[in-house]
Amino acid sequence: MSIIAHSSDKVKPYAPVPVYIAQCRALNLTLSEESMAQNDVRVAWEPLKAFTREVFIKAGLTPEDADIEAEVLVWANLRGVDSHGVLRIPWYVEYVETGDMNPRPKVQTLNETPATLFLDADRAFGPVVTTFAMNRAIEKAGRVGIGWCVIRNTTHQGAMGYYALMAARKDMAGIAIVCGSPNMAPFGAKAIGVHNSPISIAVPGKRHRPLILDMATSVVAGGKISVAQDRGVALPEGWALDENGNPTTDPDLADILLPSGGPKGSGLALLFECLSSLMAGNPLLIHGPQSVEERRFRYLQNSVVAAVDIATFTDVEGYKKNADTIIDHLKALPTADGHDRILVPGELEDAIYDNRVQNGIPLPPGTVRKLRETSEKLGVQLPRGL
Fold first, then answer.
1. pTM for the complete prediction?
2. Looking at the predicted structure, is the pLDDT value of residue 183 above 80?
């Protein structure tokens, strides 16, 4: 199921770069978009997706699975979620080489009911098994009102919003949760104890695009530290600690993420572990702190994806109209100082998407260098411009 081709109803005209950056600031856009440096290279998304597909075929995936993997990564870049985009390609190739990602998994159904599904992913590429799981959840929701799927032993799944949006496109509510090995300090601690488990929730609108919340339980996703490394910029204060538990703004020293909202972020992360990993009989947070190298080379995740059929509870068209009304009401509220508009979940990413579909995806020098190395290593031709 392709999301890229349907993420935007209409591509909006591109503003000149200085104007666009000013708009980014007004919209409070992501670090990756506002800090677009002169050395960034813009690459059209279609050839970038084709390159990504070929890399993963060379890494051992089937063409069909490589299609899915490429789409999910480039979709993230198109929406400005560069921390979960093609920056990940070299890591995934290395994980295949170390045996941490399985390009030809034997996904098993461990248990199934009319409303639920329990899968063992056999260390599959995350997008491959998670797309399959959400499609099954949508099928079940269409029959019995809800589909709830627990996935164990998967690997990095990319931007979780992709999967929640799959359900919203079918006039359902979509939920996607993931938990991995510890990488975040719980509130009050200065050592890792929980994972910065992301959650995404998406629901459809009628006049408006789907509402889509996609957030980590840390202040920022860990991949944004990698984006800062590739850009050669410092981190804002309050994002991370070094390995000794001291605050740092150096992305090369950042080792421990900090929870968003203090106890709220770490509390959500703990409960997401209980909903995913403990439910799968595969706990990931009870093995104690790991070194950076141990975390790097034993990449494992458990996940939940769910779809809820809105029609089971209410009229779908009425639901979507009411969602539109809420959005209109919120956006009509008076703005606080320093803001010229009120954004709803997903709106910021939609604005970036409109720009990048037409004008390409900006890649920082560090990412470009790593993609060139991967291209040479695997013998895959780079997209034009790289």
1. 0.88
2. yes
